[in-house]
């Protein structure tokens, strides 16, 4: 492993030189803004982007420390640090997906309530005010923000702001229906909401069945990926002499093994992923 330090030093010098010659200070606020939007959609508005970055770095350092203390292999320490660095991101991605599923279910219920309110004679603004108080719990803060915006600005601008905050295809359809009713009148809005609700319920039922299958596949993938790691830790603690072959340049084999485990785990997750929903209406 004598070549690792020179390579690391050379890479560090190059990165410092590139940062001085080609500064990208203007891109940093944009990156932090993307992190902030991601945290908002994950339901964590109280977490600042800088705090998320610092937490990821601390997680990387802590995991690397334990890997070095338990195994003493530099290559494994580096891989553990990378896992700790991207671990919080993967966790918040899962949280974002769970929140998105809950938001879509709540939106279907909100559309049903809005449809019923319109059918009994209430106007759209009055029905939205009611949703801010009695609507689905996951969407009450959003409808409350919509009501406040409606009282200070035009109805279409308030809806557009809500659509941008949630950034969801189903929300786009919902907002498009309300904007169309604002221009053409609310005569057929209840029928439009009824058809949208039925279509969304059918789609959500299909996705729930896929998620149930996906959950079983994810558990299997985690078990398959964890078994080699558990065996490695156990044998390393019981009979360290078995792993003398991995000393020095032999650690490259360990890197290859971990890369193959990561690729296999990622491949199983990729094959069982839900199809992505692109935003058509914005």
| Oligomeric form | single chain
Q: Uncertain runs with pLDDT below 50, 5 residues or more?
A: 1-6
Q: Report the span from N to C terminus.
A: 53 Å
> What structural class should be given to the helix and strand makeup?
mainly alpha
Give the helix proportion (percent range). over 70%
Strand segment tally: 0
Number of domains: 1
Summarize the biggest pleated sheet: none
Radius of gyration: 25 Å
- Which sequence of SSEs, written as H and E, runs from N to C? HHHHHHHHHH
Number of helices: 10
Share in β-strands:
under 5%
Shape: elongated
Q: How confident is the prediction overall: mean pLDDT?
A: 76
Could you give a short description of this structure?
The protein is mainly alpha-helical and 282 residues long. 79% of the residues lie in helices and 0% in strands.
């Amino acid at each position: 492993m004598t070549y690792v330090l020179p390579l690391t030093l050379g890479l560090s010098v190059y990165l410092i030189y590139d940062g001085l010659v080609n500064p990208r200070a203007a891109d940093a606020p944009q990156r932090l803004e993307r992190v902030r939007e991601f945290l908002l959609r994950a339901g964590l508005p109280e977490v600042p982007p800088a705090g998320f970055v610092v937490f990821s770095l601390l997680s990387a350092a802590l995991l690397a420390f334990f890997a070095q203390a338990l195994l003493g292999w530099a290559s494994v320490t580096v891989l553990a640090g990378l896992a700790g660095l991207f671990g919080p991101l993967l966790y918040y991605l899962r949280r974002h997906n769970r929140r998105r599923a809950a938001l879509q279910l709540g939106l279907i219920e909100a559309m049903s309530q809005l449809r019923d309110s319109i059918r009994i004679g209430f106007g759209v603004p009055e029905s939205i005010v009611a949703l801010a108080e009695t609507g689905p719990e996951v969407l009450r803060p959003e409808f409350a923000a919509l009501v406040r915006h409606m009282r200070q600005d035009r109805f279409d601008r308030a809806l557009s702001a809500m659509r941008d905050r949630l950034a969801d295809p189903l929300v786009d359809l919902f907002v498009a229906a309300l904007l169309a009713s604002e221009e053409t009148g609310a005569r057929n809005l209840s029928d439009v909401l009824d058809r949208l609700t039925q279509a969304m319920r059918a789609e959500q039922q299909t996705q729930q069945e896929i998620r149930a299958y996906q959950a079983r596949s994810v558990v299997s993938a985690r078990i398959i990926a964890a078994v080699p790691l558990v065996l490695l830790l156990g044998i390393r603690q019981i009979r360290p002499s078995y792993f003398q072959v991995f000393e020095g340049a032999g650690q490259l084999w360990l890197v290859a093994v971990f890369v193959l485990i990561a690729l296999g785990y990622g491949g199983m997750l990729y094959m069982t992923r839900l199809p992505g929903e692109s935003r058509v209406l914005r």
